[in-house]
Structure formats: C-alpha cells, structure tokens
Amino acid sequence: MGKTGPVCLITGSATGIGAACAREFSRHGWHVGISYQGEGQLQEAQAVAADCSNAGATCLLQALDVRHDAECVRFAQAALQRFGRIDALINCAGTTRFIAHDDLAALDADEFHRTYDVNVVGMHQITRACAQALKASGAGSVVNISSIGGLLGRGSSVAYAASKGAVNTMTLALARALAPVRVNAIAPGFVAGGLPSRVLDAKAHAQATAAQTGNSVLQRISQPEEVAALAWFLTAHAPGITGDIVMLDNGLHLNAG
C-alpha cells in the first residue's frame, strides 16, 4: 500500500471495540494507527496489528495515554510522518469503575477527575492533535465511542454516565467547530468484551451480561464488530451525517422508563 490510501487512527485499540475497529478498517484497505496504554497491553496490541497486517493494511503501533496532551500530539505526528495524512479518528479509549449510583459517599472527586481525564479531556486532546490533518484530508471524520448511559443517566457509575453525556455534548460542539470534518458518536449499550469485562470479575460480569440481555428489547447484547461496522459506515458511507449520536443498544433505551 505504501503511503497511498486513507488512514484511520484508533485510540484504545488493543482490546474491545477499538481492536474491532482496527480490524474493520484494515479489512477495507485503510492504513491504521493502533494505540495501547502501557506494557500490559502491548501483546494484545501486537496481535491486533498482526491481524490488520494480514488483511493487507500498513500499521502504526504506538503507546498512548490520552490524558497526556504531548502523547496525543506524538501519536498524530507519528501518523503524519509514516503516512502523510490522517483521514479518520475513532475515539475508543475509555475508563470506568463500578460504583452504585446511590452510594454517593463512594464516588469522590478523585474518581470523577480520573474518569473525565480519560473519557472527556483525553478525547478532546487527541481530536485537537488530529484536527488540522483531518481538515486537510478533504473528507475527515471523527467517531466518538460514547454510551447509552450518557443518554439515560445510567451505567457503571454516575461519573461514567456524566462523562459520556459530556462526550455527546462535545460531539455536537465539535461537529460545528470542525466542519467540514464530520463528527459523530455511537452510544452502545452493553458490549461483549467491552469495559465491564476488564473491570469486573467473572461472576459479576456474567451477572451484568444476563441483566443487560434481559433488559433489552431484543434480548441480546452487542458484539464489538457491530460497533466497528457502524463506525466504518459513519466514516466511509455517510457524507451527510454529522453531529449525530447513534444508539446501538438493542432497544435498551425503550425499557428505560
């Protein structure tokens, strides 16, 4: 492929939705920038990069903590040096801890700041780092991975729900500010292999999976590949869609009342 062809950078792409997005875009002939946080994720990120390379993509693999602006700038600059362009950014990096919403004493300022630093500030910083290159693309696209919790005020914690609500609002603001770059968000419900699988023990995760399945109208949970396919559609086949928050929750919101 050399340096021709479109380029997509994906944060949080060693696991879950981010990894699925890297595989989806590479399958469609894109170069991909794969990021991972710390040595603990390196082997998983390398496995994703191997899959993408086997699909014919050229990969950039780089450590990235979106909380640090300098690392966001380095990721964007490394992509420009490697490929000469950035056409899409998929913001998948996220964090959470499970804290009951009615246990107000358990959610302190430090946890709120920790959650916002990754889910909101970090998302803004990497988008800012890529903004000029996305504009230069002529068909730039940003897809933010939000959550149905940001629309319903539900989820793993009040801080998480609030952070995803902020992601939704930021999506609208950036869609105006960055046009003609398109900025959209996907609000999934429970996703297999998503954040809960990395912060809950096996028993608690099984209970959460059963509860989310039972509470959804379609009586199922989503797979990471479904979210990736929607991110691909919004990027490659939706030139008229911007500033939208697309729910992908198996009808969970229909039972929210």
State the gist of this model:
The chain starts with 6 loop residues before the first strand and ends in a 9-residue tail after the last strand. 49% of the residues lie in helices and 14% in strands. The protein contains nine helices and seven strands.
Task: Explain what you see.
With 257 residues, the chain is α/β, with parallel strands linked by helices. It has a single domain, classed as Rossmann fold (3-Layer(aba) Sandwich), CATH 3.40.50.720. Helix content is 49%, strand content 14%. The protein is built from nine helices and seven strands, in the order E-H-E-H-E-H-E-H-E-H-H-E-H-H-H-E. It has helices spanning 16-27, 42-54, 69-83, 109-137, 149-152, 158-178, 195-199, 202-215, 224-236, and strands at residues 7-11, 31-36, 59-63, 88-91, 141-145, 182-188, 245-248. It has a seven-stranded parallel β-sheet with strand order 3-2-1-4-5-6-7, sandwiched between helices. Helix 4 (109-137) links the parallel strand 4 and strand 5. Helix 4 runs parallel beside helix 6 (158-178).
- What does the main sheet amount to? 7 strands, parallel
* Gap from first CA to last CA: 50 Å
Mean pLDDT: 94
Domains counted in the coordinates: how many?
1
Computed Rg: 17 Å
**Could you list the spans in which at least 5 consecutive residues all have pLDDT below 50?**
none
Q: How many separate helices?
A: 9
CATH fold category name: Rossmann fold
CATH H-level superfamily title: NAD(P)-binding Rossmann-like Domain
Question: Oligomeric status of the shown chains?
Answer: single chain
How many beta strands in the DSSP annotation? 7
Spell the H/E element sequence. Answer: EHEHEHEHEHHEHHHE
CATH class: Alpha Beta
GO molecular function, one term: oxidoreductase activity
Protein name: SDR family NAD(P)-dependent oxidoreductase
Domain Ketoreductase: 6-194
Pfam families: adh_short_C2
